[in-house]
Amino acid sequence: VRSVVGWSSEAIRAVDLLIVAAATVLLVGWLRAAGGTRASVAWFVAGVAWFYPFTTEFSHCQRDVWMFLPAVLACRWRVRQRERPSVSWAVAEGLVWGMAVWVKPFAV
User: Fold this and answer.
1) Contact (CB, 8 A) for 67 and 100
2) Burial of 78 (0-12, 13-18, 19+ CB in 10 A)
3) What dihedral do alpha carbons 65, 70, 72, 74 form, nearest 10°?
4) What is the pLDDT along the chain (108 residues), one digit of tens a residue?
5) Can you tell me the distance from the alpha carbon of 62 to that of 42, in angstroms, rounded to the nearest whole number?
6) For residue 67, with 0-12 CB atoms within 10 Å meaning exposed, 13-18 middle and 19 or more buried, which class applies?
7) How many Å apart are CA 15 and CA 5, to the nearest integer?
8) Exposure pattern of 26-48 as b/e (b: 16+ CB <10 Å)?
9) Full-prediction pTM beyond 0.85?
């Protein structure tokens, strides 16, 4: 990440915020697909928006959060695979799981 955005702490924190936002968007889509109401989606987004800025500095830019994005994406694709099986989506899901494990092996 540093080779792309630079070595400043602000750049790394911006990437961290983008990763959290992307995971939140994926989870919101999953919540809507599961039948979540507008109120439940709003409360979920409010909870993430309230929680993230007030966590300690040791929680930001950590591998635990960064592995969450590919893990959520892989889980979404796993659900898609059950509905409409496809070899190409299975390969993509495996690659995304590989990314999650590469970031942190606890993704398994």
Assistant:
1) yes
2) middle
3) -160
4) 888 888 888 898 899 999 999 999 999 999 999 999 999 999 999 999 998 888 887 888 888 888 999 999 999 999 888 889 999 989 999 999 999 999 888 888
5) 26
6) buried
7) 8
8) bbbeeeeeeebeeeeeeeeeeee
9) no
